[in-house]
Write a structure and sequence with these properties.
This protein is of the alpha+beta class. The protein has 3 domains: about 90 residues, Immunoglobulin-like; about 90 residues, no CATH class; about 140 residues, 3-Layer(aba) Sandwich (Glutaredoxin). The chain has 10 helices and 15 strands. The strands form 4 sheets. A 5-stranded mixed β-sheet has the order 13-12-11-14-15, with helices on one face. A 4-stranded mixed β-sheet has the order 4-1-7-8. Helix 7 links the parallel strand 11 and strand 12. The longest helix has 29 residues. It is elongated.
Length: about 375
């Protein structure tokens, strides 16, 4: 399961706003209900998150800027750097493109209409199909944010697993249908974190129209997919060495001859730690049959890492150079979010990826079925 909080999700696509044409004017009017004094527009520019703001004036928020090509943004009410709760938390996306764009509703963003520009017209045609996904995502986010007990966390996880399953069923046909439009690229970018596998992403990417694939955001995704091929199922697992919690060097190659789960996690990643009890049970069940685990922490704070190790008492190798996503293992395995894992066979070949929950035990039962 990919975390709502821990996964470094590509929410918005990258573009450049430096051209001399393509003026857009975005006007937002949301009924008589009391509104926050400020609205924020989350967008990406040259790979960095940019947050624009507009104050409520005469019942309307107004944004203006330049859009060389259409690019997606998210409208957030009242909260600059975090997602709000309640009726204003609904994920409302739109495309900034040349011309006047209007968002209007009698009450909340959940029921808002969007008008202006051909890309927004495409997105409007898609929205009825995407609305159930958006509602599932929001329900999972709210449940996760309010969870205080194990049963509530388990429920939040079930909601997010259901959301991912819906993504996997709903998005591929839509990407095929809208392959000519920029909206298909953003659907694929949304879909990528849920899959994170070359085998699933490459065929969908190849369906995109050339003009979409050769856009700056399309080329960036193409590069990402090419990187994923380096750690695709059937490929050799990239070797590395890392210090363990005592400072001793551990080499992945030392585990040749065993089935090894290479697990990327961190002390601050709640979904990662929620997986640990089941992983410990799986380890105890299969350790006598040449199964092992190597956990690679994405922590950058040694104290927090060591404290988490003491709390979790995981009986297998723990390694980290405390450089997080900038470290060698994260770069070799193209980790841009956690939890992620790789099941590596005795010959050093990647057998499976991202086996969460019962999927790991099922896969081990399969590969060890003929083993003594």
């Amino acid at each position: 399961m990919k975390s709502l909080l821990c996964y470094v999700v590509v929410l918005l696509t990258t573009t450049s706003c430096s051209a001399q044409s393509g003026q857009y004017d975005l006007r937002i009017r949301l009924g008589a209900r009391p509104r926050p004094s400020t609205a924020y527009l989350w967008r990406q520019s040259q790979g960095r998150l940019v947050v624009d703001s507009a104050h409520l004036s005469n019942g309307e928020y107004t944004f203006s800027g330049m859009a060389v090509t259409p690019f997606r943004a998210r409208l957030v009410l009242g909260h600059k750097w975090s997602l709000p709760l309640g009726y204003d938390a609904f994920p409302f996306y739109l495309y900034l493109e040349s011309g006047t764009i209007r968002v209007s509703s009698q009450d909340s963003l959940r029921h808002a209409t969007l008008k202006g520009g051909p890309t927004n017209a495409d997105y409007n045609a898609l929205r009825p199909s995407l609305l159930p996904l958006a509602e599932q995502e929001q329900d999972a986010y709210q449940a996760r944010n309010h969870a205080t007990s194990k049963s509530e966390r388990d429920h939040a996880r079930q909601l997010y697993d259901a959301f991912q399953a819906s993504q996997q069923q709903t998005l591929p046909p839509l990407i095929r249908q809208w392959a000519h439009s920029r909206v298909a690229l953003d659907l694929l970018l949304d879909y990528a974190p849920a899959l994170a596998t070359y085998e699933d992403l490459a065929p969908l990417y190849n369906m995109l129209a050339p003009s979409i694939k050769y856009s700056s955001a399309g080329q960036a995704l193409g590069q990402r997919i090419a990187e994923l091929h380096e750690t695709a199922v059937g490929r050799p697992a990239p070797p590395f060495t890392q210090p363990d919690s005592t400072g001793q060097t551990v080499a992945l190659a030392a585990f040749r001859g065993q089935y090894v789960l290479l697990d990327f996690w961190a002390s601050w990643c709640t979904p990662c730690r929620a997986e640990i009890p089941l992983l410990k049970a799986t380890y105890q069940q299969y350790k006598a049959r040449h199964f092992n685990v190597v956990s690679v922490s994405m922590d950058t704070n040694r104290y927090l890492w060591i404290q988490a190790l003491k709390q979790e008492s995981m009986p297998w190798k723990q390694v980290s150079d405390l450089t997080g996503l900038r470290g060698e293992p994260a770069k070799l395995y193209h980790i841009d979010g956690i939890p992620q894992n790789f099941l590596i066979g005795p010959t050093g070949t990647i057998l499976a990826k991202n086996l969460q929950g019962d999927a790991l035990t099922r896969k081990l039962a399969e590969v060890l079925a003929t083993k003594p």
